[in-house]
Design brief:
7 strands; 38% helix; 5-stranded mixed β-sheet; single chain; alpha/beta; 5 helices
Length: 178
């Protein structure tokens, strides 16, 4: 049985229509909210895991303190560039109880350990080997930072490198400042 050449455009249009429908459904399914995802004004999703130095970590232990959660990796140049700022802010706001938590994503642990040692950073970095935290927090790029208040409520999200003025503005949201 041979296909009538006049029907080919109709069948092609039908096939394209089906493909477009499948693509749209795929995007809808992929972008729908998951059970435990991040949203401003809501509790920050839990982070439980192992740090670069092998210690157990649970974000819940930091309740009562303002927290900056920073998704990063050593191959990310802006991530590397913002490390000195995070280190300085941790010292500057120590009296306020500021905590910084790194989440290593999209890079292996060994280079991250070396980078953290070279920078002399003191905050924990949780390893996210299967990307579950990245997915839960809906990370779109590195660095990406989440500012969580003393009650564990997410107050602000910054995609891209945090600069001094950005940090201070968002720190006021999580510290109880003006």
């Amino acid at each position: 049985m041979r296909l009538d050449p006049r029907r080919r455009p109709l069948l092609l249009a039908l096939a394209l229509s089906i493909a477009a429908t499948v693509a749209v459904l795929g995007v809808v399914v992929a972008t729908r909210p998951l059970g435990d995802t991040v949203a401003k004004g809501q509790p920050a999703p839990m982070i439980v895991g192992t740090t670069l130095d092998g210690a157990p970590f649970d974000l819940a232990a930091l309740r009562g303190r303002p927290v900056v959660i920073n998704f990063w990796g050593p191959t990310c140049v802006p991530c590397r560039d913002e490390f000195p700022l995070l280190k300085a802010k941790l010292t500057e706001h120590a009296a306020d109880g500021l905590a910084v938590v790194g989440v290593l994503t999209d890079d292996p642990a060994d280079p991250a350990r070396a980078f953290v040692a070279d920078e002399g950073s003191t905050w924990p970095t949780v390893i996210d080997p299967n990307g579950a935290l990245k997915k839960t927090y809906r990370v779109v790029g590195r660095p990406q930072s989440y500012f969580v208040d003393r009650n564990g409520i997410l107050r602000s999200i910054q995609i891209g490198e945090v600069r001094d003025a950005d940090f201070e503005r968002q720190f006021d949201l999580i510290s109880g400042g003006s």
